[in-house]
Amino acid sequence: MSERYKGYRISKVVIGYAVRLYFRYKLSLRDVSELLIERGVCVTYESIRLWVKNLGPVYAQAIRKKRRTSFTDKWHIDEVRVKIKGEVFWLWRLVDSTGEEIEILLQRRRNAKSAIRFLKKALKRIGQPPRVMVTDKLKSYNKAHRVLLRTSEHRSHKRLNNRAENSHQPTREKERQMRRFKTPGYAQRFLSSMGAFLNLLKVKRYSVSAKEYRQKLKESLSIFHEIVVSQPSVYLKRKILTQFIDMINNLTAPSPQFLERAKYGDILHAKLGNMSP
């Protein structure tokens, strides 16, 4: 297998190292670029941005495939306010009892319809309902529980959902470091990938001994290295092509008002053309 992805002059290991640093730690693109220069690899921060944008979701998807059934059956759900270009959005997050992120979804509202949409997405990923569902006292969760999770126990208390509320801290830290997110679409893609990276690479050091912590960290780094090296260039090209096809398919047909304006513009252009000497 080639040491480089097709179309990239830098080796797979270096690209994976840079992407891992950016998602795992509170580093800027320029910080990662300086760390690479110290190791003899000269790349601009713009190159690292493209690596994060194009290869980050690919690595995150591979991480999810390897850790598909590693979540517990106790879910903690919470939502947090995110402001993007002056507009308020709500970031819905679902974590298990160990703090590992299962799913996130950025939405404009936090009503019952939004809660149902989020839980449908989570159930589609996990494939089975939880044993216990823990939320805050937001009324939207009651209807979502009645519609989708009737067999699950619903617990709602003021301080019972601290596990989910604490899971927002990495998002806030990265948001401050990035000077806020620029678009909702980028925020959704980036935070979804970051959750998969943190699930794998952020070992809970306070719950195990030092020796066990180092061993788990080595295993996590070994898994990530295997993912980086095993990604073929054909897969990356197919991933980019699929994203382009999805973008084309999501384009909506022009409205009748737009067609009427375009027709009026053609008529006006023809009249002005006839008036020209």
Give a verbal description of the structure.
With about 280 residues, the protein is an alpha/beta fold. About 55% of the residues lie in helices and about 15% in strands. It contains eleven helices and five strands; from the N terminus they run αααβββαβαβαααααα. The protein has helices at about 10-25, 30-40, 45-65, 110-125, 140-150, 160-165, 170-175, 185-200, 210-230, 235-250, 255-275, and strands at about 75-85, 85-95, 100-105, 130-135, 155. The chain has a five-stranded mixed sheet, with helices on both faces. A hairpin with a 4-residue loop joins strand 2 (about 85-95) and strand 3 (about 100-105). The termini are far apart.
Secondary structure category: alpha/beta
Oligomer: single chain
The count of β-strands is 5
Helix share, percent: 55-70%
What is the string of SSEs from the N terminus onward? HHHEEEHEHEHHHHHH
- Gyration radius (Cα, Å) is 23 Å
Largest β-sheet summary = 5 strands, mixed
Low-confidence stretches: none
Strand order of the largest sheet: 3-2-1-4-5
Determine the mean pLDDT: 85
Cα distance spanning the termini:
67 Å
Helical stretch tally: 11
How large is the share of residues in beta strands? Answer: 5-15%
Shape: globular
Quick overview of this protein structure:
This protein has 277 residues and is an alpha/beta fold. Helices cover 57% and strands 13% of the residues.
